[in-house]
Structure formats: C-alpha cells, structure tokens
Amino acid sequence: MPSTRVSQELFARARSVIPGGVNSPVRAFRSVGGTPRFIAAAQGAHVLDVDGNRYVDYVGSWGPMILGHARPEIVAAAEEALRRGSSFGAPTEAEVELAEAIVEAVPGVDMVRCVSSGTEATMSAIRLARGVTQRPRILKFAGHYHGHADSLLASAGSGVATFGLPDSPGVTRGSAGDTLVAAWNDADAVRGAFAAAGETIAAVICEPVPGNMGVVPALPGFLELLRAITRDHGAVLILDEVMSGFRVARGGASEHYGVTADLVTLGKVIGGGYPLAAFGGRADIMRQLAPEGPVYQAGTLSGNPVAVAAGLTQLRLLDAEAYKGLEQRADRLRGGLLAAFAEAGVAVQIPAVASMFSVFFTSRPVHDFQVAKAADHGRYARFFNAMLARGHYFPPSGYEAIFVSLAHTTGDIDATIAAARELAPDLAD
Ligand SMILES: Cc1ncc(COP(=O)(O)O)c(C=O)c1O
C-alpha cells in the first residue's frame, strides 16, 4: 500500500481551516472512505500526489481535461495571455472568437454569453427562460445536477412529477417550490406535469447525457419528447451540456442526438481547465439579456482572457479525429472492465454515451436515479480503493462519470484493465 502520510497531514491541516478539508464536497472521499490525495502536479494522463504516488487519472478534473493535463499548446496559450494582463473588465477579441467557435459547433446556438462556472451558466439560463416566458416554474429530473443555485437544489417528493423540496438547508421552500421534479426517462411524468401546469412552466432543464448520477442515458425518444412538449407549450428547453458539451461530440449531445435546444449551457471542456463556462442559444432569447434586453446578468471575471485563451486553444485541437480517438479509448477501457467483471462473476452495468461511461454494480439496467441509487455503492467503494492502491484514480463516488483523455495511451488503459482483472475476484460475492 503506497504511503499517504503527507496527504493525511495536509488533510488534517485543511480540516481546521476549510469545511471538510475541501473546496468541493466530492473531493473529500466521503462516499468511498480513506484519505483524499492532495495533488502536486499532473501531466498527460497522470496525476502525482504529494507523497510521490503516480496515478492513471480517470477524473480529468471532472471533465475539462479532455486532452490530458498540461497540454503544451494550452500552457503556452495561457502563459502568453497572462503576460498580456490577467483581466481587463473590458471586451477582448478572443471572447468573440470563442463565441464564434461555440456558435459554429453547437446546433441551435446563435449567441453566447460567457460566465465563470457551470453553476452560473445554468442559473443565468433559468433566469433568462423565466424572463422571456414570464412564467415561474422549471421542470428538472431527479439525479440531474446543474450546479448549486437554489432553485436547482430541489429533490423529488413522492409521486409522479412533484413540487421540489429543498435539497439543502438554506434553500427556501419558495425557491425549491417553483421547481418540478420528475424521474428521468419517465415520459408519463413529463406529460403529466405539462398537462397539470404547462402554462406555468418556463423551462425544462436536463443533462442530455446525465453524468451526475453516474451515466444514465436517455431512452430512445425521451429527448425528442422534451423537445416537442416544450415547443408545444411555449416553454424553453435548456440542455445542460456543462459535462457533455464538446465531450460526447464537438457539438455535444445536441449533435450526438440531433436534438436542438433553445438554450444550452457549457462549462468544463470549453475552459481547458480554467474557470470558464457559458450559456447560449436562440438569438431572440439571448437578445433579451442585458444590456440588449431587460434580463440582468453580469460578471467581473466573465470571459477572463487567460481562461478564454486556454479554452479556445483546447477547442481548436478538438477535431473529428479527436472524438474518434476518445471513443476508441473509452470503448477499450469499458470493454476490458466488462470482461474482467464477467470473468469474476461480478454483476455490473457500464452504461455509455460516446466516451462517457460509469460503473454500477448491479444486474439491473440503469434508467433512472432510483435504480442508480439501488446499485451496490459499497462495492464501488471497494473497487475504487483497490484501484487507487494499484495506481488508477477513478472518481471517488459511484455517481460520477469516468473520463478518458486523448493523453491516455493503450498502455495506460491496458494497465488499468489488468489491475481490474486482478482485483475483480475480491468483488465477487
Ligand atoms: C451537468 C452539470 N451542470 C452544471 C454543473 C456545475 O458546474 P460548476 O461546478 O462549474 O459550477 C456541473 C458540474 O459538475 C455539471 O456536471
């Protein structure tokens, strides 16, 4: 077992000055146990911790590092931008280029506004949808994560599509109560919500490739239903592509599934590892944003020049070949894991969309949050820790997507499969 002494010491120090010792909860390893690794550096497909342990990284900063860590072209672009000044609070040419690149790539996006996090992107898209429709309610899906804005931290009550309940102390019943929550892939619940309250629904928001309850693909026709029903009722369809954007295809899930939203939110990949996100969509909707329209939205660091330089460089490197390469790597890893578990008699589901996938220890096909929750997450924790001890860093929660990058070599992936094959018998009942 590799030493984690320095990580343990840092974690103890961190816990006295940072709640839980981390700046975002999943980093604390609560659902898998053990000490979070404090990272000293990362290069390509590998991260190095402060104890000198090296891991093949399948977290990829939760999605942004699609080309691997410290890709030289991105480092150079960020350094070059930094030397010209880190923030101006005024428009730059590179922001226009980034917006043009997004408009060209993502179906249905005519205009773009940059923000600094995915949370800001979804929060702003919802305000805009409410502003243009003059309606209060939104419909979201159980198990979908859209960042931590109040109205999106709503959980389902019992029943078909229910009024949301606050999912965290500090969220008022008022904020959560304007959020309707339905089960993912439940067409009847969506139809029922619109039949009961359609004239009050401003927007439907979903992760078109849900990755925050593990990867739980849309059933055939479900996204098309969301498109049609929102159109018929004058509501806005928001595809939250913070994770899937520029990941499952250059044009994200919109391109992959051929479903065109009214608004799309982006983050992660478009920032190249820097704090950059965006929302965009139909020109008539986007023109309602301040200063052109009445819906207020702003940000001191929005479109930050260093982040934009890094993100634009990453987007320029993501051509059709890149997506082919990503899918080949993901298919190889997924296939290897499936074979390793099958040989050991371990029941597993590994749902995938393009290069995104996740591991559920269950024999039931996973189509919604209920089934995802019923998977054996204790077994996932054992899998995670055994892989980590062998130098393979999977997401520290069974509710997260596994990300490969173009920096992963066949050798990296085969080493990960070999490690899984070695430990799989211990995961059998
Ligand atoms: C689909 C989706 N939307 C929104 C967010 C929030 O983004 P951020 O963490 O940048 O605020 C995330 C983050 O994981 C996400 O996966």
Characterization of this structure:
With 429 residues, the chain is an alpha/beta fold. It is 39% helix and 14% strand. It contains 14 helices and 16 strands. It has helices spanning 5-17, 72-83, 93-105, 118-133, 173-177, 187-197, 222-233, 252-257, 283-286, 305-317, 320-344, 369-374, 377-389, 410-427; strands at residues 39-43, 46-49, 54-57, 111-115, 137-141, 154-155, 162-163, 165-166, 179-182, 201-206, 236-241, 263-266, 277-281, 352-353, 356-357, 392-393. Strands 4-13-12-11-10-5-9-7 form an 8-stranded mixed β-sheet, sandwiched between helices. It has a 4-stranded mixed β-sheet with strand order 1-2-3-16. A hairpin with a 4-residue loop joins strand 2 (46-49) and strand 3. The two termini are 24 Å apart. The model has no long low-confidence stretch (mean pLDDT 97). The site of pyridoxal-5'-phosphate has 16 residues, from helix 4.
Please write out the topology:
Elements: H1 5-17, E1 39-43, E2 46-49, E3 54-57, H2 72-83, H3 93-105, E4 111-115, H4 118-133, E5 137-141, E6 154-155, E7 162-163, E8 165-166, H5 173-177, E9 179-182, H6 187-197, E10 201-206, H7 222-233, E11 236-241, H8 252-257, E12 263-266, E13 277-281, H9 283-286, H10 305-317, H11 320-344, E14 352-353, E15 356-357, H12 369-374, H13 377-389, E16 392-393, H14 410-427
Parallel strand pairs: 3-16, 5-9, 5-10, 10-11, 11-12
Antiparallel strand pairs: 1-2, 2-3, 4-13, 6-8, 7-9, 12-13, 14-15
